[in-house]
Every structure is written in structure tokens, then in C-alpha cells.
Specification:
single chain; 6-stranded antiparallel beta barrel; mainly beta; 33 strands
Length: 621
């Protein structure tokens, strides 16, 4: 009972095999190369308007079983033009395309399954008036034909599309662009129809050069290239992975080497929708040498032409010293006397609309850790440099960009410094609001003092200063527009300068700009208050003074204004003062008063000196 179906199946398959063999033999007899080649030669002028030639055309079956195909040899297209490097537009040594025989015979479908092209030479040229040697196709008979494009095949089942050993030249005299590539190979496999697709593509090439000699000269050299695309199409949805490898690339613009023998890789997982024109990136990564940037997010092209962007980016650890080595020297010339190193991290986002008149906002974060810094003109080497900063860049007209310095810290010698704050309108006026802190070991100050200044410094200083200003006012020292206040605490001060000595266990200085106090005698710009519990000042063989529980209040006019005389007051309140000069000694209890120097009201060009003094006890010997 089971033998009948089996015998029937074997019989039908055998019959089908006989039919295929008969068809193949009939095709070989009817469409021999001697008969087919002249037919193709006669048809070519209907599709190509310039000179063409080919050596041989034949149908294949046994070599491409179970498909049948068309095989062409030595196809040459010529279209001579003045100044073109060659009369030949294209030369194809070997080309084969195959079609599924079963679908063609029984389903009346043309399914393209394999396409091979070997040893292709292409020379594409456009002259200075826009005429191209590859404009070789006859004009459409219906210029206003609006019929939607239809694929010439029912299905392209890309078992193999292989193009190997391509040499191509492209030159455009209008745009002054030229491109040259050698040993290009393309391999495509997959399935493509009107709705769905599954494609794997590999593109490799040998040396490729690009040149543009317009108002801006650009040149690029790619020693090798490898591109891989593995993607799926399901209706309007596209999903896949793209990888690009350029292990040796050089890029030059206006005689500046921006990349020299660089190693560039791109890994681009993507999802796109053709209908909504939305592109989604998930962990896309671009790398130059050891410096990588990752991208995530989406971009959507609107019907208005706007591109709505919502992307985030972040980097791996960037070594500053290595990064500066690949930056063009023209941009590092100003840094030649600076030595800097450390590890940097960059992250941020790009959000908003991009079109001809709008740019999206860029939010960027920068972190620098374990940095070092040295400048030849500065006698200090800074270490442990750490930076954390953020910027919000809005490059659109009348918009404000800002930056935030979350922390900047550094050490040198036995001293340390830190800064924080923010800056608004950083692309224009640069309005700053910052806080500076320092812990300064006074011996570290000596290297910046004049070499012939014989001074010995001991002690420590802690400073905390807050300031608001714009950059121009700081550069011009426009004190009237600068707001600053701060405190400086000094401990264990011991100073020897030639024969002058000063000592104090502690001192506290407060500074305010503009002044925290008013003066009845002049317009005060700066105020300062100094307090110390014990201050000793001595000049060898001259005098010896000791001040206990001293308070000094100082007011000053604008000492940067050279058009007016300096005005100042110093109010003092001292619990005890003892002084010795030669054989004279003075002992005063609770001296207090004020010394004032200011313009005379009757004659502003003349100074007026005023002194007020009182004390409880005064002993002199």
C-alpha cells in the first residue's frame, strides 16, 4: 500500500528532471553564443547612446543549476570627452546573472537569485560645464511620466551578488572633486521583495583617495576599507547592524593634517521606520585610535524638513597627552609651553530641531581626573588636577549659553586650590559667578618673588573668595563693575626681609568690593578689615613693636583710576601697643583713632591728611 505513492513521487521527479534537461538542451541549441551575441549587440544601442562592444553572450544552465543565467564577457562602453583620463566609461570582463528556472517556467515569475561581476574598470567624468561621460542613456519618451517605480523582478532572492576587483575613477571639474579606488569587492546575500528583506553585505576596498580643490582644499586617503551591513526589512521597519573599519586613514584640509594614519571604526546598531522617517540608535560607537564616542537616541525627519533630534553621547577614558598628540599642530601651537596630562570623560546630549535656521541645544559634561599641569613661564608643577564641569550650548540667534564649574581642584608643593561657580552668556559677554578657595603654604610663594628679594617666609594662608564679573571687566581691571568678597586667614606667620622681621600666630582679613562701609570724606570702593591677637614687627638696630588684639578697618577709593588722587582711611583699635626705638620705649593702653588721606574740597588737586587719636594710658621712657 505504501509503495504506490513512493513510486508515483519518483516517477514525477524523474519526469520533471527529464523536462528540465530537455528545456536546457533546447535553450542551448536555440540560444547559442553565436546566435545570442549578435542579438544583444543589436539591442544595446536602444539602451545606451554611446559606443559599446562585447565579445560573447551565452545562456548558462549546468554551471548555475538549478537556475539559468545570462553570461557576458568583455563588455566595453566608450564615450570620449576632452580632458577625460580615458575614452572608456566602463569595462566589464565577466558578468553573470541567474534566474530561478522553476519559478519562471511554472509560476511565470522572474526571480533574480545570483549576480556576479568580475574585473570592472569605471571612469566617470564631468567637465566644467556639467557634461558627463556617463550620461549615456536615451531620454524618456514621456517626460512627465509620473508612474511609480516598479521593480523589474518579482523577487530578488539574493543568494549571491558578488562584484570583485573593481577599479574606479571619478572626476568632476565643476565641484573640483576627484575620487579613485582600487581592488573594491562587494558581496551581498539575502532576500528582497516589495515588502520584506534580509540582507548581509560586505564591502572591501584597497587604497581609496579623495580630493577637493575648491576654496577649501580637502584630501583623504584610505589605505583599506571594510564595511559590513546585516539588516532586516519588515514592511516599513528597518533593523540591523553596520560596522565600518578604516585601519589607516589620513585626512587633510587646507594643508592641515587633521588625521594622519588614524584607525577609525564604527559600530552602528540601528532601527529605522521608512514611513515616520525615524532613526533609532542603540549603543552606536565611533572610535579614532583609542578615543571612542558612544551614541544613543533617535532622530526624526519631519515633513517640514525639520530634523527632531534627541541623542545622548558619552566617551571612554581619554588620555589628554595622547589626545593632544593627534590634534593638528596648528591648534596646539599656543600650548607648546604647556605640559598637561590626565584622563578625561565626556558625556552629554543633543536635543531640539535642526534645520536651515535652527540648531539643537548641546548639553555637555566634562570630567578630568588625576591631571598634571605645568607652564614654562610659571615656576610651579600642578598635580592631582580634577575637574568636573558642564555646559549648555544654544547656538541659535539671541539665545544664551551657560557653563557650570562644579569643581576644579589642584595641588602644588604643600598648597592646594579649588574653584566652583557658573558662567552665563559664555559665547558673548561671559558673566561669571565663581568661588575660589586656597590653602597656601607661604614658602611656596617664594619662587614667584624677585630673585634679588631676600625674603624668608613661613606660615599658612587659607583664602575663600567669591566674585561676580564679566570677562572684559576683569581684563580691564574695571573695579567699579566687579563684585567680590572674601576672607583670608593667616596662621603662624614668620617673615624675614633683610633686617625687617614680622610675626603673628594668626590674622584674619576680610575684603569687600564694592565697599561694605561708607565714608563721609570720599566715595569708598574697597573696604578691608584686619584683626590679629598678636603682631610683632622688628627692624634690627632700629625699632621693635608689638601690637595686641589689633583691629584695622581700611577704606579706599578706586586705586586703578589714574585721573584722581587716591583717598583712603585706616581706623585702628588696639588693646595694647609696646614699642622700642633706640633708647626710647613707649607703652600705650587702648590706642584708637583714624588716619585719613583724601582730596581737599576747596582744591581737589591737593591732598588733605587728617588724624584722630585717643588712648587710656601712655607711658614713655
Amino acid at each position: 500500500m505504501n509503495k504506490a505513492p513512493r513510486i508515483t513521487g519518483i516517477t514525477l521527479l524523474s519526469l520533471l528532471g527529464v523536462i528540465l534537461i530537455v528545456v536546457a538542451v533546447a535553450m542551448w541549441i536555440v540560444f547559442t553564443p553565436e546566435k545570442l551575441t549578435p542579438i544583444v549587440r543589436n539591442q544595446l544601442p536602444k539602451f545606451i547612446t554611446c559606443e559599446t562592444s562585447l565579445d560573447n553572450v551565452d545562456l548558462t544552465f549546468f554551471s548555475t543549476f538549478p537556475d539559468f543565467g545570462l553570461h557576458l564577457e568583455n563588455v566595453c562602453i566608450k564615450n570620449p570627452m576632452p580632458e577625460s583620463p580615458s575614452d572608456t566609461v566602463a569595462f566589464i570582463e565577466d558578468c553573470t546573472a541567474t534566474v530561478n528556472l522553476m519559478a519562471f517556467l511554472f509560476d511565470d515569475k522572474v526571480i533574480l537569485e545570483n549576480f556576479y561581476l568580475q574585473h570592472l574598470f569605471a571612469n566617470l567624468y564631468t567637465d566644467s560645464i556639467g557634461k558627463s561621460n556617463f550620461d549615456i542613456f536615451p531620454p524618456s519618451e514621456e517626460e512627465n511620466d509620473t508612474t511609480p517605480f516598479a521593480m523589474p523582478f518579482d523577487v530578488i532572492n539574493l543568494k549571491t551578488i558578488k562584484i570583485s576587483d573593481v577599479t574606479a575613477f571619478y572626476a568632476d571639474k565643476q565641484t573640483k572633486i576627484s575620487v579613485e579606488t582600487h581592488n573594491l569587492n562587494l558581496n551581498i546575500q539575502g532576500l528582497l521583495d516589495n515588502e520584506n528583506a534580509n540582507i548581509k553585505t560586505t564591502l572591501e576596498s584597497g587604497e581609496t583617495t579623495f580630493n577637493m580643490n575648491d576654496s577649501t582644499s580637502i584630501s583623504a586617503v584610505l589605505k583599506t576599507l571594510e564595511l559590513n551591513i546585516d539588516g532586516d526589512k519588515n514592511g516599513n521597519d528597518l533593523k540591523g547592524d553596520l560596522t565600518l573599519s578604516l585601519p589607516d586613514i589620513s585626512f587633510n584640509m587646507d594643508n592641515v593634517d587633521f588625521v594622519k594614519s588614524g584607525n577609525v571604526t564604527v559600530a552602528l546598531p540601528f532601527f529605522a521606520n521608512i514611513d515616520t522617517k525615524k532613526l533609532i540608535l542603540d549603543k552606536a560607537k565611533m572610535t579614532l585610535n583609542d578615543f571612542a564616542i558612544s551614541l544613543n537616541g533617535q532622530a526624526t525627519s519631519k515633513e517640514s524638513g525639520d530634523i527632531d533630534m534627541n541623542l545622548t553621547f558619552d566617551s571612554n577614558n581619554w588620555n589628554i597627552k595622547q589626545l593632544l598628540q593627534i590634534v593638528p599642530s596648528v591648534y596646539t601651537e599656543s600650548l607648546k609651553e604647556i605640559t598637561i596630562n590626565g584622563d578625561a570623560l565626556i558625556s552629554g546630549s543633543v536635543q531640539g530641531i535642526y534645520n536651515d535656521s535652527l540648531l539643537p541645544q548641546i548639553n555637555a559634561n566634562l570630567q578630568l581626573s588625576q591631571g598634571t599641569f605645568a607652564y614654562k613661564g610659571l615656576p610651579y608643577n600642578f598635580r592631582d588636577v580634577n575637574l568636573k564641569a558642564a555646559a549648555a550650548l544654544n547656538l541659535n540667534k539671541n539665545e544664551i549659553s551657560s557653563a557650570t564649574l562644579q569643581n576644579l581642584s589642584a595641588k602644588t608643593g604643600s598648597s592646594s586650590f579649588s574653584a566652583s561657580g557658573k558662567a552665563d552668556d559664555i559665547l558673548n559677554k561671559i558673566l561669571c559667578d565663581i568661588q575660589l578657595k586656597a590653602s597656601l603654604n607661604l614658602p611656596d610663594v617664594k619662587p614667584i618673588l624677585p630673585k634679588d628679594m631676600h625674603i624668608d617666609l613661613k606660615g599658612n594662608t587659607v583664602a575663600d573668595i567669591k566674585a561676580k564679573f564679566n570677562l572684559d571687566d576683569i581684563a580691564n581691571l574695571n573695579l567699579k563693575k566687579i563684585h567680590a568678597n572674601g576672607t583670608i586667614d593667616i596662621s603662624n606667620l614668620d617673615v624675614t626681609y633683610d633686617s625687617l622681621l614680622a610675626q603673628t600666630p594668626s590674622a584674619h582679613l576680610t575684603i569687600n568690593l564694592p565697599s561694605a562701609k561708607d565714608s563721609k570724606k570720599f566715595k569708598a570702593l574697597l573696604s578691608a578689615k584686619l584683626t590679629t591677637p598678636d603682631l610683632k614687627v622688628k627692624m634690627i638696630d632700629s625699632f621693635d613693636v608689638r601690637l595686641q588684639n589689633t583691629d584695622l578697618d581700611i577704606l579706599s577709593s578706586n586705586f586703578m583710576d589714574t585721573t584722581q588722587m587716591l583717598s583712603a582711611t585706616c581706623a585702628f583699635n588696639i588693646k595694647h601697643l609696646a614699642a622700642i626705638m633706640d633708647t626710647i620705649s613707649v607703652d600705650v593702653t587702648q590706642p584708637q583713632g583714624e588716619i585719613a588721606l583724601y582730596q581737599s574740597r576747596r582744591n581737589p588737586k591737593h591732598p588733605r591728611l587728617q588724624c584722630n587719636y585717643s588712648s587710656q594710658n601712655l607711658l614713655a621712657d
